[in-house]
UniProtKB/TrEMBL annotation, chain A:
It comes from the Bacteria. Residues 2-255 form the ABC transporter domain. InterPro entries: AAA+_ATPase, ABC_transporter-like_ATP-bd, ABC_transporter_ATP-binding, P-loop_NTPase. One of its GO terms (molecular function) is ATP binding. Keywords: ATP-binding, Nucleotide-binding, Transport. The keyword GTP-binding does not apply. Signal peptide: none annotated. It comes from Paenibacillus sediminis. This is ABC-2 type transport system ATP-binding protein.
Length: 328, 263
């Protein structure tokens, strides 16, 4: 369904010195900096797969997705989406894909949602019967009924995102790209959106590529993940394997009045790592297989004055860090 | 082509529906444009209260030129207004990407995205001005003359739009070329009056560099006593076509730059 071979994208950033003289100078001498956002990556995705495409900020996720959508031309390498080369055949590709960008809207700003969908029907030339059946289904599933007559600009983020999602599946595309579809949403809406994606995948066999910083999204939706960092793929494979390897990782942040003289208590030395020390905070990293969180907390409280603490499950960032340092 | 025309109709209808719901906005937009333009016309009238002829042009001839400019401009404003916002609302925000993931020509999508109701003010005023001045010109209006006039008005609208498109394309490299567009557009204000009142360099600029002279003055001379510009007047539609082709070519180059650099 999707074939990516040796794909790279370099951004050329023109450097400008500050001030007027800098602006004038830059007219003549252009200092270029090349940023390799995606660096020779390859992968293949089969029809019907739901793949989590994850990595820290600036890893190159959105850049890859833009290339798959035909928005950006690759600097190097090959792409095929449903047999089409996206940047060469943008319109043809557009029929096969749907896309949601968490940060911005695909819909028509000023006109009511219902009319937006009508326009999409004409744009994608969706047969009226199919359109109506899907609309009915989506409206029910995403609970769009009460918001269909409101212009997009008046919708809340959660309402908008549900509408966006429906819009991206409306023409029954073979592949849907979801770039942070759950960003900034509350738990209920996130849950609703995940359910919908699962349903679409089951019902129509839609291939889904999903980027997110929310581990929960990944766990509930994806069998496979691709981890990218600094433009390169660190891991491509089963989610289960990664979870077994890293899912037991815990981080506890201790807020403390004093961290200058902090030293890891001797009884924790064999099982716990110090992840970070700042002026007011100490973060400890450990595996729940080696030691219980409660035990770590008890030992810390006995030795140091602690104001507050938060416990974090494994985040994508720590997984990436771990893979970097220790390999998979 | 037929598909795009049908699609445009759907975009248009959806927006008109919204406008009828917000009809107060419509009236306010209409009135404000109408009165701004009306003030300019009134100023011309005041000038002509003191003199009969300006540089060889009568009041109604000047009104006629102004009328073509207004109707031509209204075509630009009603249908192509979104061009102004490419830098600010599309490229800087990254919304331009949305136009690229649809099975449509991105320029079509961009233009169809917005119908600017305020332009109706210009259209109504322009039509009124044309109606009044046509009756007072020493010209025998036949059916084909009206057709020719309409062709000229459409060409005028396309010239406005083509020049606008050309300058907005710089947005692909400089993020927002609004100041450039604004400057170019301000130049068009000169072209609402007979070019003969300007010095030669300005005339040359308005004819061969940013050819706003063709948006009203040259075509208008066909229907007045001033016969020395007939050739220039008759090539107006060709000028419009050339401008559009050049601007579109430039736009395509800009688009290619966008797809290689991102927003
Ligand atoms: N248009 C651009 N011009 C120059 N550099 C860019 C451009 N877009 C992205 N970059 C750079 O390319 C790198 C990858 O960016 P990208 O948006 O693909 O990251 P991402 O993985 O989507 O991150 P996030 O999780 O923050 O969304 C970053 O270093 C970013 O600064
Ligand atoms: Mg991103």
């Amino acid at each position: 369904m999707i074939e990516v071979k040796d794909l790279s994208k370099d951004y050329i950033i023109l450097k400008r010195k500050p001030g007027l003289s800098g602006a004038i100078r830059s007219l003549f001498i252009r200092e270029k900096e090349i940023k390799q956002a995606v660096d020779h990556i390859s992968f293949e995705i089969k029809p019907g797969e739901v793949v989590g495409y994850i990595g820290p900020n600036g890893a190159g996720k959105s850049t890859t997705i833009k290339m798959l959508c035909g928005i950006l031309t690759p600097s190097h390498g090959e792409i095929r989406v449903n047999g089409v080369v996206p940047y060469q055949n943008r319109k043809q590709n557009a029929i096969n894909i749907g896309a949601v960008y968490g940060q911005r809207t695909q819909l028509f700003w000023d006109i009511p949602v219902r009319e937006s969908y009508e326009l999409l029907r004409h744009i994608y030339e969706i047969p009226k019967n199919d359109f109506e059946a899907r609309m009915k289904h989506f409206t029910e599933y995403l609970n769009l009924g009460p918001i269909l007559d409101i212009p997009v600009r008046q919708l809340s983020l959660g309402q908008k995102m549900r509408c966006e999602l429906a819009a991206s599946f409306l023409h029954n595309p073979a592949v849907v790209f979801l770039d942070e579809p759950t960003i900034g949403l509350d738990v209920a809406v996130k849950e609703n959106i995940r359910k919908f994606i699962r349903e679409m995948n089951h019902l129509y066999g839609t291939t889904v590529i999903l980027t997110t910083h929310d581990m929960e999204d990944i766990e509930q939706l994806c069998q496979r993940i691709i981890i990218i960092d600094n433009g390169s793929i660190l891991y491509d494979g089963d989610l289960v394997a990664v979870k077994e390897r890293f899912g037991h990782q815990r981080t506890i942040h201790f807020e403390m009045p004093q961290t200058d003289h902090f030293k890891l208590p001797a009884s924790l030395e064999s099982t716990v790592d110090v992840a970070e020390i700042t002026e007011s905070r100490v973060s400890l990293l450990f595996s729940s297989r080696d030691i219980k969180g409660a035990e770590v907390i008890a030992i810390m409280m006995a030795e140091y004055e602690v104001n507050d603490l938060t416990i974090k499950d494994t985040s994508i960032e720590t997984i990436v860090k771990e893979i970097y340092e220790r390999g998979i | 082509m037929v598909r795009y025309m049908k699609l445009y109709w759907h975009f248009f209808a959806a927006q008109v529906k919204v406008m009828t719901e917000y009809w107060v906005d419509f009236i306010i937009g209409f009135m404000s444009v109408f009165f701004i333009q009306f003030t300019s016309v009134y100023f011309i009238k005041v000038v002509f209260d003191h003199i009969d002829v300006l540089n060889g042009w009568t009041f109604y001839e000047i009104l006629f030129i102004y009328g073509i400019a207004s109707t031509g401009r209204s075509i630009h404003q009603i249908f192509f207004d979104n061009l102004w916002l490419v830098g600010r609302d599309y490229i800087r925000t990254g919304n331009f990407d949305r136009l690229l993931i649809r099975p449509l020509n991105p320029l079509f999508h961009l233009i169809a995205d917005k119908v600017q109701q305020d332009g109706v003010g210009n259209l109504v005023l322009g039509t009124i001005l044309l109606g009044i001045s046509m009756n007072h010109l020493a010209f025998d209006w036949g059916f084909w003359d009206i057709v020719l006039l309409i062709v000229m008005v459409i060409s005028s609208g396309l010239i406005y739009s083509g020049i606008n498109l050309f300058f907005v394309t710089f947005s692909f490299w400089m993020v927002d070329s609004f100041p450039l567009m604004q400057t170019a557009f301000n130049v068009s204000q000169f072209a609402r009056y007979p070019l003969t009142i300007y010095s030669k360099p300005i005339r040359i600029i308005l004819t061969w560099v940013v050819p706003y002279g063709f948006t009203s003055f040259y075509p208008a001379t066909l229907f007045t006593g001033h016969k020395n510009y007939t050739t220039l007047a008759l090539i107006t539609p060709a000028v419009a076509a050339i401008i559009c082709v050049i601007a579109y070519g430039f736009w395509i180059i800009g688009l290619r730059a966008y797809t290689s650099t991102g927003n």
